[in-house]
Amino acid sequence: MSELEKAKQEVEQVCFAYDKAGDTGDIKDWKEFYDLENKLIEKVKIANQPQLTIPKSVADLLDKFIEFVFEDIGHEEWWIQENGLIEWFSKTPNCYIKDAYLAGKALGVDLVKVVEG
Question: How buried is 37 (Cβ within 10 angstroms: 0-12 exposed, 13-18 middle, 19+ buried)?
Fold first, then answer.
């Protein structure tokens, strides 16, 4: 199920809970409605927060960097070869986004969203 379908399903659940609470007037039904509504509101707040992003071209080069480091080729030589990265990382906050991307890779989570570019 896609994220959009999941979101639609959650909104429908809130609507049904509202209708049910309105029909019955039962305090238990109203509590269920408010609980569902509050969960949905929190998800919307999180979804609307700014995200760290990194261009796909840079992410691909960072992935290569990880391979070089693990192969013991030496990251100093790699940095010299990839001049485009040095230019990109010299701009703040890009150097910190790089660290977040690499940390996310190490932890197995997506801390930075990869976008076209």
Answer: middle
